[in-house]
Amino acid sequence: MAHPIAGYKEDRVKEILGIPEDTKVITLVIVGKHSETMGPLLMEKQLEAEKERPERLALEKFAYMNAVRS
Q1: What is the mean pLDDT of each run of 10 residues along the chain (70 residues)?
Q2: For the chain, what is the radius of gyration of the CA atoms?
Q3: Residue 50 is inside which H or E element, if any?
Q4: Domain-wise residue ranges, the chain
Q5: 65-38-66 Cα angle (round to 5)
Q6: pTM for the predicted model, two decimal places
Q7: How far apart are CA 6 and CA 51, in angstroms?
Q8: Coil vs helix vs strand at 25
Q9: Are the beta carbons of 50 and 38 closer than 8 angstroms?
Q10: What is the largest CA-CA distance in the chain?
Q11: What per-residue confidence (pLDDT) applies to 45?
Q12: In this structure, are residues 29 and 3 in contact, taking their beta carbons and an 8 Å threshold?
C-alpha cells in the first residue's frame, strides 16, 4: 500500500533527504509492505485489492532512500 502525505515542510524535507534547493518537492509517499493480516480501517474494496498483489519491482530499482541521485 502507498499513501500520499500532505502538510509537510518542503524546506525540512529537502534538508533531511539532501534534495537540492532548485528541486521542487511535489509529494511524499509512504510505502509499506504487504501484511498477512489486514487492518480494521480498510474498506471492503481495499481488502479485496490487498488479497492479490502483482509481483513488485525491487525498491532499489525505482526509489532512492534518504538521498537524491543525479
Answers
A1: 78 90 88 74 81 77 70
A2: 15
A3: helix 44-51
A4: 2-61
A5: 5
A6: 0.48
A7: 27
A8: coil
A9: yes
A10: 42
A11: 86
A12: yes
